[in-house]
Amino acid sequence: MSKLVTLLNGPNLNLLGLRQPEIYGRETLADVIARATALAGEFGLDLAAQQSNHEGQLVDWIQAARSTSAGIIFNPGAYSHTSVAILDALNAFEGPVLEVHISNIHKREAFRHHSFVSRRADGVIAGCGTEGYLLALRRMATLLQA
Predict the structure, then answer these.
(1) Rounded CA gap, 121 and 76, in Å?
(2) Could you give the number of structural domains in the chain?
(3) Is 24 a catalytic residue?
């Protein structure tokens, strides 16, 4: 039986490929999810991908993952820097959590250098473009084998 990994994407990631391609690239979120789903299958994992611009919806999905998912890969977008509610929800999740940022948040504006999500994350991947999602899946597969 394969293990389910929840892949969550926060605000504005629905505009991936269109919004600031000089920072985030030209690949769409659908492209990223297709590549990630294929790679997950190679590791014997199932992937449930969701995106929302709404903090409460992301909290609901994190809470739901407690009973369905072995791990969470999460690009919280701007909520990284603002959401204690998301941190609290992640703290109630017992499996591994990996945080992904397409850009290197540490090379950007100072307010982006802090992430509440990082306080819970078992690993953080930043600045690797959309390949960061695939790196996170590889790491998640390793963590779930342990």
Answers:
(1) 12
(2) 1
(3) yes
54 is catalytic: no
β-bridge partners, 124: 99
- Of these residues, 24, 79, 106, 113, which one is catalytic? 24
CATH number, domain containing residue 21: 3.40.50.9100
Marked catalytic residue, from 79, 81, 101, 106:
101
Closest alpha carbon to 36 in 143, 142, 140, 137: 137
Q: Is the pLDDT of residue 125 over 60?
A: yes
Give the Cα separation of 36 and 132 in Å (integer): 10
Unique residue bearing structure tokens 């992904």 = 100
Range of the domain at 94: 3-145
What is the per-residue pLDDT for 109?
67
Q: What are phi and psi of 137, to 5 degrees?
A: -65, -40
Q: For 88-112, how does the pLDDT look when each residue is reduced to its tens digit (9 = 90+)?
A: 999 999 999 999 999 878 776 676 6
